[in-house]
Design a protein that fits this description.
The protein has 408 residues and is of the alpha/beta class. It has 15 helices and 16 strands.
Length: 408
Amino acid sequence: MRSMMGRRSFVVGTGLAASLLASRASAAAAGVKIGLLSDFSSVYADSSGKGSLEAIRMTVEEFGGQLLGHPVQVVSADHMNKADIGASIARRWLDQEDVDVIVDVNNSAVCLAVKELVEQKRRLALFVGAGSSDLTGKFCSPNTVQTLYDTSALARSTVKAVDKLYGPKKWFFLTGDFAFGHALERDARAVIEATGGKIIGRVAVPLATADFSSFLLQAQASGADLIGVAVAGADLVNVVKQGAEFDITRRQRFVASVVTEHDIYSIGPKAAGGMVFSSPFYWDLDDRTRAWSKRFQARAGKTPTMTQAGNASAVLHYLKAVRAAGTKEAMAVMKQMRAIPVEDFMTRSAPLRIDGRVEREMHVFQAKTAAESTGGWDIYKHMVTNAGKDAVRPLAEGNCPLVAAASQ
């Protein structure tokens, strides 16, 4: 009797396990599921967060809302700029919720954790708001794409523009004491020194710093001509605003690499006017960016940032690749993502390289002064556009293992 009950329990248990596996397989086959892993509550929330979620939803709807005969689903979560939290969310999505692609991950440390998981689970990640050039360098992966910008492209584009405007100068760096900040300073330092500039000092600053006064006083006392700001989001806004209070901008200039429209708007023309920076997107750049931004603003109630536009661009390219592949299997989709140039409202036929970097144009802007702006969101003055091949780091210089393997 006990033996029969044991066999019956085994049969029931096996049947239940098979049923669960079949259910999960059916869900996995049902349709594409996109997971937006972003900052919804901290220093990068304004530049991405809810705005990126709205941009992705708008993209899916305009694409038709369906792929492979099923609705496209979008889920989202806050990584809170912590690698362990981001990894936990990503693992749950991949193991239990059948998410096919993770998007944004606007924190380089979180990206490294997500990278390991998508490789193990044979899924994809599209890094949009994360800037470390190591993501397509020593940490490149066949399962990840860096779609919008990186610290190398921003540094190459911005520093060269500053050098043309002002000539070689003395620099002092306020550097975020985390992966992105260190990568940004490193990449900027290489271009500065190559163009004859000198770095005479630096100070490391923690993420989400409220009071930058001690760091700014060090920069002011250094005698540097230019202050390189290797932080972003709310930290950048606080640095420049507090620097203006110290009257730093009367004798020194801030140079920030990672800048969004909301940053310049929040800082205001009095403090930000004249600041030089680079971006792959600006809402008022041309007819296509204006048309897309108008639709976004009607839904979100605000002007889009480069990261929000970048998330829309990344998801649109992914959806096109799934449609072309006829499957959502990761490597088949990645093959199509490399085969189809990125072409959309903000991108002009940009190739996806073997190292995972989208080779897109980089525009140099100067923040408008109060006298130059007509008010509102008329905040950028376009200076020059660098072709993708000129802005993005050459493949041979990134130390990506995939590049070395492809050349053998």
